[in-house]
Inverse folding.
């Protein structure tokens, strides 16, 4: 071995002699600057306070359900009703049995909620089936035709109400219609084409009286903030073309019920609200009993769907009490 | 099987307290909502009888006779409002037709700015060429005027013609709930008949983006701080164990 090689061997340290580098121990967790506050001891509630708290909780839940019903669920209900009405009207139009007067083909007075025609306003994206009757309960399904007026396209003035906010708010934007805008209504007498003549508020000049052989359609809705009506808005439209013969009308303006007027409420189903509240109270009593006797988990599984059902039932009945143009 | 009563030091009691606070908050909001809804319904019902002019549409129609078709006849026919020409007879009914308001909010990076474009359509149903002036203004939830434009003139509107009047109202800011108003003031007499100014209004929603952004940031920061703090406490408890 040469001298250089001997030196290299001598200077190279043996690999096995180097100690392994020890890992740094994990840093201890840093304590928060401020420790959590100890919970304050709470005074036990009296039986009256417990009753008050429970009652307020139920009222809060009902109010929340009412708001959810008006703002969200009513839109779904309206969409489902319109789908059903559209199918029914399409079938009647195909069979030629769609109503052209206040009675059906068997001369039986039309019930509230029967589909009469399809209102189409392309400029604001409205395509709604019109139903007979203008009470609040009837207009949850769609725009309502006032019974004492002729059908759209027939000689005379036809009046159709529509909601501005709840249940789809089909007439929310009709005030945006400008004079000259087109709309159409498909009834049992064919497609009736109208052109808008203007918008009116209370106190504005009335349109010219309708002349022989002419037809006018007046759309009515609430004005003001959403869910806060401050008045009524009217949009008039004139028929383009020849008016159809007017069908028989049994209902006159004098015979029109108060529930059919603009912004009227419908109190004819208050009895159903009473039953709904009774059902809700029975469910709540049952839930409390089951919680104490059976346990929280089983009570939750059984009584939550029942409570939601009762809440929807109650709030539906309350919603009907709201004005028909809301 | 009864639920075991929890002591005051039990963490579940804190959760219960949070739930109670949340329930109270919801209750307050709901009571406020119910008050507003009840008041609005009452107001609507109280306004309805004087605010509704049913004779507008019903009076011209004669009472229908069962078994016959109703054919209202007007001895003094008026021109068709949908056509630009008509017989030269005195116009009955509306002389100047006005649509409702169309509004559109335009966002601005300056939280104190932002604008609302307001427009409407007017149609001359008379036999005379008319001019008019228009005023636009915005009011907030308490009725105070936020922005306005006056003196917008409309001239030379011929019979049967239609025109769109529009204005942009600045300084909307973060008011959130606004009402847009417009008044059209035609000549005091048209075709020899007196004509009154016509007013329209509309609801305008202005997204409160500044308040919303600050709220989102504050909530996000609070929850992030809370999560970090919980993590440290858990690690500390593990280290102590």
């Amino acid at each position: 071995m040469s001298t250089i090689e001997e030196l290299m061997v001598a200077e190279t340290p043996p690999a096995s002699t180097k100690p392994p580098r020890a890992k740094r121990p994990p840093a201890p967790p840093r304590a928060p600057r401020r420790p959590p506050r100890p919970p304050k001891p709470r005074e036990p509630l009296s039986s009256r306070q417990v009753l008050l708290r429970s009652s307020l909780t139920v009222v809060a839940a009902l109010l929340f359900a009412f708001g959810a019903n008006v703002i969200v669920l009513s839109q779904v209900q309206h969409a489902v009703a319109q789908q059903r009405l559209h199918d029914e009207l399409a079938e009647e139009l195909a069979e030629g049995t769609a109503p052209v007067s206040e009675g059906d083909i068997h001369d039986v007075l039309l019930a509230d909620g029967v589909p009469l025609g399809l209102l189409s306003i392309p400029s604001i994206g409205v395509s709604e089936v019109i139903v007979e009757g203008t009470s609040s309960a009837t207009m949850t399904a769609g725009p309502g035709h006032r019974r004492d007026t002729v059908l759209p396209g027939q000689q005379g003035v036809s009046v159709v109400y529509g909601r501005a906010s709840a249940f789809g708010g089909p007439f929310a934007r009709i005030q945006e219609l400008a004079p000259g805008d087109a709309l159409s209504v498909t009834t049992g007498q064919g497609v009736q084409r109208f052109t808008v003549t203007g918008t009116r508020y209370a106190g504005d000049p009335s349109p010219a009286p309708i002349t022989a052989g002419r037809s006018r359609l007046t759309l009515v809705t609430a004005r003001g903030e959403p869910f806060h009506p401050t008045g009524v808005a009217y949009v008039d439209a004139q028929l383009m073309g020849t008016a159809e013969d007017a069908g028989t009308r049994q209902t006159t303006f004098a015979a029109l019920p108060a529930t059919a007027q603009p912004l009227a409420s419908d109190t004819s189903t208050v009895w159903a609200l009473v039953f709904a509240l009774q059902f809700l109270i029975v469910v709540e009593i049952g839930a409390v009993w089951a919680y104490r006797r059976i346990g929280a988990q089983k009570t939750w599984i059984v009584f939550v769907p029942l409570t939601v059902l009762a809440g929807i039932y109650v709030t539906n009945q309350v919603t009907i009490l709201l004005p028909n143009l809301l | 099987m009864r639920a075991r009563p929890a002591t005051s030091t039990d963490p579940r009691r804190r959760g219960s307290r949070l739930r109670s606070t949340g329930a109270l908050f919801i209750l307050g909001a709901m009571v406020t909502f119910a008050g507003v809804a009840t008041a609005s319904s009452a107001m609507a019902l109280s306004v309805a009888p004087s605010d509704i002019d049913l004779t507008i549409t019903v009076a011209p129609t004669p009472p229908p006779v069962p078994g016959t078709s109703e054919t209202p006849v007007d001895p003094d026919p008026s021109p068709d409002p949908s056509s630009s020409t008509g017989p030269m007879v005195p116009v009955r009914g509306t002389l100047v037709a006005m649509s409702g308001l169309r509004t559109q909010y335009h966002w601005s990076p300056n939280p104190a700015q932002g604008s609302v474009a307001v427009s409407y359509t007017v149609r001359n149903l008379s036999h005379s060429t008319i001019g008019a002036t228009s005023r636009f203004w915005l009011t907030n939830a308490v009725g105070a005027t936020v922005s306005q434009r006056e003196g917008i003139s409309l001239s030379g509107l011929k019979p049967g013609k239609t025109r769109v009047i529009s204005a942009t109202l600045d300084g909307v800011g973060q008011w959130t709930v606004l009402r847009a108003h417009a008044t059209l003031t035609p000549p005091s007499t048209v075709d020899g008949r007196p004509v009154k100014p016509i007013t329209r209004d509309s609801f305008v929603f202005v997204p409160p983006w500044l308040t919303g952004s600050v709220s989102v940031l504050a909530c996000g920061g609070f929850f992030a701080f809370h999560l970090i703090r919980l993590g440290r406490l858990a690690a500390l408890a593990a280290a102590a164990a």
Summary: Chain A touches chain B through 94 residues (CB under 8 Å). Chain A has a mean pLDDT of 89. The helical segments of chain A are 3-11, 47-95, 270-293, 296-320.
